[in-house]
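Bug #2210: C-alpha cell dump truncated for GNAT family N-acetyltransferase?
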Amino acid sequence: MTSVWVGERVRLRAKEPDDWEAFHSFEEDSDAVRNGWRLHPPSSAAYAKKRTAEEAEQRPDLDDPDLVIATRDGNVPVGSIGAHHSDRDHGTFAYGISVGTPYHRKGYASEAIVLLLRYMFFERRFQKAEAWVYSSNDASLALHRRLGFVEEGRRRRSHYANGRYDDEVLFGMTIEEFTALHT
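Reproduced locally. Full output below:
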C-alpha cells in the first residue's frame, strides 16, 4: 500500500499531543523563527502542551491542511507545512513551511513541499501555488528556485526583524510547471 503523504524521507501527518516538545524546542532558535514569520516571547511548556493538544483535536481542513513533517522511519517531528489563503474561485493557494534547525539541509523541506503540492494540485484541483520568502533567507530562496518556483514579484521592506527591513519575495508555480518537474 502507498500513501500520498509519504515520501522517501518524510511523512506528512496530523499533529499529535506528544509533538509539543519538539515544536517547543524549535522555538529556541531565534534566527530560524524570524525566517519563518516573527519572534515571540518564550512560552511555557504548559502552554505548548495545551496548544498542541487543542490543535491535535481539530478536524483537518481539506483546502488548508496544517501538517507535521515527520521522519518516514521513526515518525519524529522535524517541522510543519500548511496551505493557507486557498482561493477556490481562482484555483490558487499559498503555503508555509518550517523545519527545526537540527533538521536543516537533509532534504526534508523539499520533499514535504512536493508532497503538499502534489496533494493540492492533483487531489484538490488547484492550479497555482505561491510562497513568500524573506530576502535575507538565502536557504529558502535557493530551495524554492531549485524546486522550480518562479520569482514573480517583491514587496520591498515589508518585514522587520533583528533590527533590519527585508523584502518579501513572491514565488509561484503552476500545475503545468510542477508536472513537468516533479511527476
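Output looks complete on our side. The chain has a mean pLDDT of 94. Marking as cannot-reproduce; reopen if the truncation happens again.
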